[in-house]
Specification:
This protein is an alpha/beta fold and 766 residues long. Helices cover 27% and strands 21% of the residues. The chain has a 6-stranded mixed sheet with strand order 1-8-7-4-2-3, with helices on both faces. The protein has a 6-stranded mixed sheet with strand order 24-25-26-27-29-32. Strand 30 and strand 31 form a beta hairpin. The chain binds beta-D-glucopyranose. Beta-D-glucopyranose binds next to loops.
């Protein structure tokens, strides 16, 4: 086929398939297989007493729970995907009839129930568990010796789940509890499948002897049902590991206390002690953990040997040999944690600093894994100046390393890294500091008092210099072809045209999230956006069905960066085939509370896993010249009143937890686009927050790409331009910008700086 010239796709929206022999790549078999593989790799085997799983061929099973039919492949809102089909759990079982014998009558009962609910207009979100008819239970009991219970959870953006009389999201509902009790009383072998976006209560099966096995199958995309069956039959061996801590109760999570305190703000008083950093460190909290971060079983066993840490002042290289000591092939995730000395700055007792997944190891086979990281990665941010203000510091003392299969069981290495004196690894600035955070948690469980009061904010004068307007008219293609430089091209734009370009443009083609660019006079194409993360979201009425991959948490549970990269690439190709240029993924907020409506879209409670996963995805996406959009920058960890809620966070927690994943991703994968969040950060909308965008993101991290708002936020467009938030989506507030220009509150230079970054993004596209 003739090579496409630049911007043919966004300009003419041709129907050019990208697969072999002119076949379509969108939801093609290979991508669907990839989705299935990711769902098996992302599932976590949490419990497996007496090797109940995998089930032997011919086992008779009865499946309980509406979730086997109303399977949740992903959550809702912009994070949803519309695939050609979703294979639910029951269908997955039916496809493997040669392996397991399912008691169909029970599943058909649930099928009918779910259909009835849909007919009555009940959504998956509000659907309660079905009652269990006694007669059916008796028949199931007579037929099957093994029971499988499916528990599902659904959530979506703009609303958090609750844990009160109206919603028992974290815990089993009364109906679910009744079902579990009835099933456990009637079956000797009980297996649980958790079809959930992120953490929910696990203590009900972990401590229940009547439940032998449990798999967190996550929200596994369009082939999730079949992937679950792959695991249950042993066609696949689980190799996923938790990316969140499973605690005994909702109240055990440190964020719970203040989660519903106010709709207007969230005080992040637990500070850096998020997830396992809290549970492993704070006295008395270890015991509250049901399954620790990083935990996950396999059908085989592994041993770790020859563990060493080679330390220089710059780098730590940990090596370990992993051997499959069981009798099935399997993969293991090697996790490396460090502990920094408790000094003037309080520290978590363990922090993840590296991981690697082995290849599939045959029984008896070994692999030596090397994980390296920089000593500077172990530094802490000193926001109060106890050593040196606004610096990352490696405090003097002994740094220890732990290697193993989860945060709790990781083995302490003999090799240490010792510093006789404090070392400043980076001198930064005090940016985005809180004015209203009065206290924060320390490692000993006490609270440190913090000063409150007005903080002086830095300003970042615009350095853009307008070029001379050329005599002849140049098109954007002339910039692409090197005939003219971008600044001279920009000099031709009228003020109105600049204003036009810093706002979103109407949608075209199959997009429903609008576009950017669109200035035919100068040949600027309109490039369209579309949502993610679990696949390319194209609205149902556009009649294009895309691959639904597992949700972000589920893929993160695979701890397989290559897999994430391949999925990023596959999704980007689906976007490209549909003439879409900008994929609004990955989403990189932190699982701070089990109730956040968007947890399924985010990776983990840990910024390192999140950052690495996001970087892998961005690399995959951008390898196809599709723009990746890393969102929501930052601290959008709660959905209630998300347009007005103020996230009140210390600078240290920002630097070490909430910005860390973004930093890793920006530095490692150079995303073309970052999306700011709806919320305020320490009193200022993130999109108007110059310290965040110019100070930290552009100046300190060297970010070169462009920045978009989230869609229809409540911030002020003029203030956004001044803060370096380049575009307002899905449309700009042109009248306000013109007024600000007239009143000389906003300069042409400031608009040009934003437009330049938008055009650089468009020029990067093919
Ligand atoms: C979400 C974004 C999404 C955008 C466009 C917003 O509501 O927060 O994540 O990309 O809509 O659909």
């Amino acid at each position: 086929m003739q090579k496409l010239t630049k911007w043919v796709r966004p300009t003419y929206l041709p129907c050019i398939p990208l697969g072999d022999n002119r076949s379509s790549i969108t939801a093609c078999d290979a991508h669907i297989q990839l989705s299935r593989q990711a769902a098996t790799e992302g599932a976590v085997l949490l419990k497996n007493e007496h090797h109940t799983l995998p089930l032997e061929k011919g086992t008779k099973v009865a499946i309980f729970g509406k979730g086997q039919i109303a399977y949740i492949n992903c959550g809702g809102g912009s994070g949803t995907v519309n695939p050609p089909y979703v294979r639910n759990i029951y269908e997955g079982f039916k496809m493997k009839k040669d392996k397991l014998d399912v008691f169909d009558a029970l599943s058909l009962y649930y099928e009918e129930y779910v259909e009835e609910q849909y007919k009555e207009g009940v959504s998956r979100k509000d659907m309660v568990e079905a009652p269990l008819p006694k007669e059916l239970l008796e028949r199931a009991k007579a037929y099957a010796d093994t029971a499988i219970i499916v528990i599902s959870r659904y959530s979506e953006e703009n609303v958090d789940r609750r844990n009160d009389g109206t919603d028992t999201y974290f815990y089993l509902s009364d109906m679910e509890q009744n079902m579990v009790q009835t099933v456990t009383e009637n079956f000797a072998n009980v297996i649980v499948l958790l079809n959930v976006g992120a953490m929910i209560d696990t203590s009900w099966f972990a401590y229940n002897k009547a439940i032998a096995s449990a798999i967190m199958i996550g929200q596994g995309g369009m082939e999730g049902g079949l992937a679950a069956e792959d695991l249950i039959t042993g066609d696949a061996n689980p190799s996923g590991k938790l990316v969140d801590t499973c605690a005994q109760s909702f109240d055990d999570y440190p964020s719970s206390e203040g989660f519903h305190e106010s709709d207007d703000y969230v005080k992040y008083t637990e500070d850096i002690f998020v997830g396992y950093r809290y549970f492993e460190t704070i006295p008395g909290k270890k015991e509250r953990v049901v399954y620790p971060f990083g935990y996950g079983l396999s059908y085989t066993t592994f041993t770790y040997s020859n563990m060493t840490a080679h330390c220089t002042s710059e780098t730590i290289v940990v090596s370990v040999t992993v051997t499959n000591t069981g009798n099935r092939a399997g993969k293991e995730v090697v996790q490396v944690y460090y502990s920094a000395p408790e000094g003037k700055l309080t520290k978590p007792s363990r922090e993840l600093c590296g991981f690697a997944k082995t290849k599939e190891l045959a029984p008896g086979e070994s692999e030596t894994i090397w994980v390296s990281f920089s000593t500077a990665d172990m530094a802490s941010f000193d926001d109060m100046g106890v050593i040196e203000k606004s610096c990352f510091v490696l405090e003097k003392g002994i740094y220890r390393f732990y290697v193993g299969c989860n945060v709790r069981e990781a083995i302490l290495l003999e090799d240490i890294f010792e510093l006789p004196e404090n070392v400043i690894t980076e001198r930064l600035h005090s940016y985005a500091a809180p004015e209203k955070l009065d206290k924060r948690l320390r490692a000993d469980g006490t609270y440190e008092e913090l000063p409150c009061g007005t903080v002086e904010r830095a300003s970042f004068p615009c350095t853009y210099k307008c070029a001379e307007k050329p005599e002849q008219t140049y098109m954007l293609l002339d910039v692409a072809n090197g005939k003219v430089d971008l600044d001279t091209f920009i000099a031709q734009l009228t003020d109105d045209e600049l204003v036009h370009l810093v706002g979103g443009q109407p949608r075209s083609g199959v997009s429903d999230t609008c576009g950017m660019g669109a200035l035919p006079r100068l040949g600027i194409p309109a490039v369209m956006t579309e949502d993610g993360p679990a696949g390319v979201r194209i609205c149902l009425d556009r009649c294009v069905r895309t691959t639904a991959f597992p949700v972000a948490t589920c893929i993160a549970q695979s701890w397989n960066l290559e897999l994430m990269e391949v999925i990023g690439r596959a999704g980007a190709l689906e976007a490209k085939e549909n003439n879409l240029s900008i994929w609004l993924t990955p989403a990189l907020n932190i699982h701070r509370s089990p109730l956040c409506g968007r947890n399924f879209e985010y990776f983990s409670e840990d910024p390192f896993v999140s950052g690495k996963m996001a970087a892998a995805k961005v690399k995959g996406i951008q390898s196809q010249n599709i723009v990746a959009t890393v969102k929501h920058f930052a601290c959008n960890n709660k959905e209630t009143n998300r347009h007005r809620s103020d996230s009140i966070v210390s600078e240290r927690a920002l630097r070490e937890i909430y910005l860390k994943g973004f930093e890793i991703c920006v530095k490692e994968a150079k995303p073309q686009m970052i999306m700011t969040a709806y919320n305020l950060l320490n009193g200022i909308y993130t999109s108007e927050n110059a310290e965040l965008l110019m100070g930290i993101l552009r100046n300190e991290w060297g970010y070169q790409g462009m920045i978009t708002t989230d869609w229809a936020n409540l911030a002020n467009h003029s203030a956004e331009v001044m803060a370096g938030n380049d575009i307002r989506m899905p449309e700009g507030t042109s009248w306000l910008l013109r007024q600000s220009l007239e009143e000389k509150k906003l300069t042409r230079e400031e608009l040009c700086a934003c437009v330049k970054r938008i055009l650089e993004m468009i020029l990067w596209l093919d």
